[in-house]
Amino acid sequence: MGLSRSGTLFLIGFLVLIALSLYPVASVEAVIDRAFAPSRALAELARPFAWLERRTVAAAEEEVALAFEAERERAHAVLFASQADAMPDDPALLQGRAAVGAHVIGHRSKNHDRLRLRYPVDAGVLPGSPVVRGNVFVGRVIALDPKHPGECTAELVTARDFRVSAATGSTASGELARFVVGGVLSKTRNDDRELRLAVQYPSDRDVAVGTLRVSEDEGSPLARLADGFLLGELEWVDVRGTRLLGLVAPLDYAFGLNHLALLVPPQMGTAGPVLPIDPFEPASWVQARVILAGSVSALRETRKLALTSASQVRVGAALSLGTRFVGRIGRVGVFDSDARLLGDPGLSFSALARIAGQAAPIPLGRLVSLGADGSSGDVLFECSQVISRERAGAQGATVELWTAAAETDLPPGLLVGTAVLIGGERQFTLRVRPALDARSAQRLAVWRSSLVEDAP
Amino acid sequence: MNGSRILACFLFLVWATWCYAFAGYWSSSGSAWVPDIGLVLALSVMARAEVGDAPILALLATLARASFSPEPPIVLLAGFAAIVFLAITARSAVELTGPLWRTIAALVLVLVFNAWLAFARAVRDPSADVVHVGVLSAALPVAISSALLAFAAGPLFAHLPGLKPMRRRPW
Questions:
Q1: Domain regions of chain B by residue span
Q2: A324 beta partners
Q3: What is the Cα–Cα distance from A45 to A39, expressed in whole angstroms?
Q4: Of the CATH numbers 3.30.1360.120, 2.40.10.340, 2.30.30.60, 3.30.1140.32, which one belongs to the domain with range A282-447?
Q5: Is A39's CB within 8 Å of B63's CB?
Q6: Would the CB atoms of A440 and B124 count as touching at under 8 Å?
Q7: Per-residue pLDDT averaged across B117-125, rounded?
Q8: ipTM of the modeled complex
Q9: A306-363 residue pLDDT tens
Q10: Which uninterrupted H or E stretch holds A152?
Q11: How far is A403 from chain B (nearest CA, A)?
């Protein structure tokens, strides 16, 4: 009877554990995490294994240190080239306005139609300044961050309440056909590759084809700076049996925006291209010791770091050695933290691909790790961006991968590795040879210069 | 619980931590064939432990693994509780200390444990989207190597110094 009672209690406890594991309750989880705090002390029993690896690790760290200066120069060159690629190049669009380089430092947590941007602090950016990428209109600045000079929030043209006046070529009557563009057509919203911008209030219902450009003739002087920038190609879209006008978006608004340009009056621009952020500023990184250079989980590629929440490092912060990107922080705890290496399935980041001989890097959007490929050291990534055959070629081109500006906790310009990129494929797997095999690393640098709060 | 059993529990914790640390160190080379040494140790001890000691073993194994594992402790604890439950059920029907059954038990239970970890991660963090990439196939080499380890070294694990007070049935 006694055994039966204890067995019943065990079963009840087991079911409760399963429920709490699958549907975590924050307060319970916090109590259990604290109850297991002694495991942090136990982890120090693994110290002798670090001594065994010391010689190999020292050689790897020396190689990284030797390559640092040259790779930093290359990183800056890639970022400047990416920034230059985001600037308008149509001479007609450069008259009467100045373009200020900016890069994306994150999305608003609950609104992916709003971006946080960083730009040179001396640029005369104002709320309402148009945001463009190349010759394409992207959105507007809606607020400057008073706490962080040189940072602002921009709203994308994909936002539901966004409105911008647009016009296409002359109609049969010789007048411009006018429209209002903003938001996306709901049916296609879940598939970013099929994204169509919503088009409303046509001045001429017979016009259903053509290229739409911004035409804010009756807007403010600041809004008129966007006049002439491309919005997309008009087409009919079938939405649940109803034919609606839509615009084929020329950009990947979800993951393809890294570097952008802000339009300001000509006297308020900056003198030349400047990097709004230097990813190699030493003060932006904090060093963390790897407790054990190995993972006990067959399904994960992680490391425990001797890094506590007192360090103010955030979940998602980039990890590097020298200029080389090796992963991101997965958890920050009171007693230790978890590092996710490139081979950890599900790890994601935005990337740029640089092809030798081509000036502008290709935005790859978000890469999602599928895990390490055996013991070769290569890591497989899923990429959903379509790369043009003109850029990469149907036979493939060897590319150098760099982190792209897209998130607060991931600085742009860190070297990821090399891969072979094939043009014209949609949703493909990229085999990446990491620039550094960090599996034996004893120390990692953690990015911490991004302690920004959400702007209004 | 007397002093010698408390000491045995403490030593089991130390041995388990060392087993996991060694497995982690071994895996840093990128080999997929690193056995789950800690789980094999726990199974070897559990095969002869009192039923009442099983939850304590699950707790201690969780504590040891949590030192190096990215999974939340509650997920590990639920996983080890499942392993304990299955092992106790199995040993009422078969002799888990025998070479064949301890090998099969290690193979199956390491797979079950890793399946549970993958399932829990997918449910807790749907954005991780990890199930479709077939990460479970990564657990198969671990399960096979763990089974071979249990076959070759099961008795050795059960007789590690200091663990004798936990063995109530002869090996």
A1: 3-162
A2: A321, A415
A3: 10
A4: 2.40.10.340
A5: yes
A6: no
A7: 90
A8: 0.90
A9: 999 898 899 999 999 999 999 999 999 888 999 999 999 889 999 999 988 888 898 8
A10: strand A151-156
A11: 20
